[in-house]
Amino acid sequence: MKGFSFIAHGKLFAIIVAVVLLLGVASFLIFGFHLDVDFVGGTTLQVEMKEYLDKEGTSSISAALEQELISFIREQTGATVASFQRAGNENGGQTQFIVKTTELDTEAREALYGALSEKYGISGGYVYSNNVGAVISSELRSAAILSTVVAVALMLLYITFRFDLSSGLAAVTCLAHDLFVMLVAYSLLQIPMNGTMIAALLTILGYSINATIIVFDRLRECRRQAMDPEQAADTAIRQTLTRSINTSVTTFITIAALYLLGVTSIRQFALPLMVGIVAGLFSSVCLAGNLWNFYRKHLGKKA
């Protein structure tokens, strides 16, 4: 990569970002988001299926049985199933399921349990049932937005203090890019948006900013050597490129293993992280230096 100039190809990277932006907006308008009960309110039910599974000679809910249960719940209640999660018991098998649907009143929940008991021959299967109100859902949405805004604002102040305003603005723009790409993934892949989304967004914020700060730290050292700004940015990116790629690939492989081997709830957390890692690598390598150079030029003109 010695002969490749990341700054000279800034327009190419801008075109890629523009394409992702248009794709994301189209996805938001066409598909929207798969909002879980945590954000829109609804009903959470946890049912024990061990009695039925013992009769079938198995210790875990299979994928086929999962789809059968989802269809059965929809038929009996007419509710939308937001998510379905298999859960374990003390013996290690996945004998319980946790389903989240649009809100069901007490009568509807009891009727559903009666239908499940009759069809699958279970007794005492209800472990937990609860309605999540719209007020709690609103509080969760507010917490997600507030936590993200506060984190980004504090990062802007820190990077501006440690480096300069151009670096701070470039870093925040990269973070906005990474978060937007993750939201596009949530929309395109229809990943349920629930409480784990907050953790995923904040995880990528911390992971991505670390890689970007390393680029800016090297950039500052190059500037001290009286390099031309664009040359300094290119040199900084090339000097940190191997480190950025190795770190991202290692982390991606680890998260991919969690996605492949984990249960549904782990997969819903791991998949956005995998997308965020790729987006963070792209922004740190391809966007950070170009954005720093852009803000440096425009802030310099205003000054």
General description of the model:
The chain is of the alpha+beta class and 303 residues long. The protein folds into 2 domains: 10-36 and 135-302, Multidrug efflux transporter AcrB transmembrane fold; 42-132, Alpha-Beta Plaits. Helix content is 72%, strand content 9%. It has helices at 10-30, 37-40, 50-56, 63-77, 106-120, 134-162, 165-188, 195-224, 229-261, 264-302, and strands spanning 42-48, 81-87, 96-101, 126-132. A 4-stranded antiparallel sheet has the order 2-3-1-4. Strand 2 (81-87) and strand 3 form a beta hairpin. Helix 4 (63-77) packs across helix 5 and helix 9 packs antiparallel against helix 10 (264-302). The protein is elongated and about 80 Å long. The model has no long low-confidence stretch (mean pLDDT 85).
Uncertain runs:
none
Mean pLDDT: 85
Shape: elongated
Number of strands: 4
**Strand order in space, largest sheet:** 2-3-1-4
Q: What's the CATH C level of the largest domain? A: Mainly Alpha
Q: What is the ordering of alpha helices and beta strands?
A: HHEHHEEHEHHHHH
Q: Give me the CATH fold name of the largest domain.
A: Multidrug efflux transporter AcrB transmembrane fold
Number of helices: 10
Amino- and carboxy-terminal Cα gap: 35 Å
List the helices and strands and how they pair.
Elements: H1 10-30, H2 37-40, E1 42-48, H3 50-56, H4 63-77, E2 81-87, E3 96-101, H5 106-120, E4 126-132, H6 134-162, H7 165-188, H8 195-224, H9 229-261, H10 264-302
Antiparallel strand pairs: 1-3, 1-4, 2-3
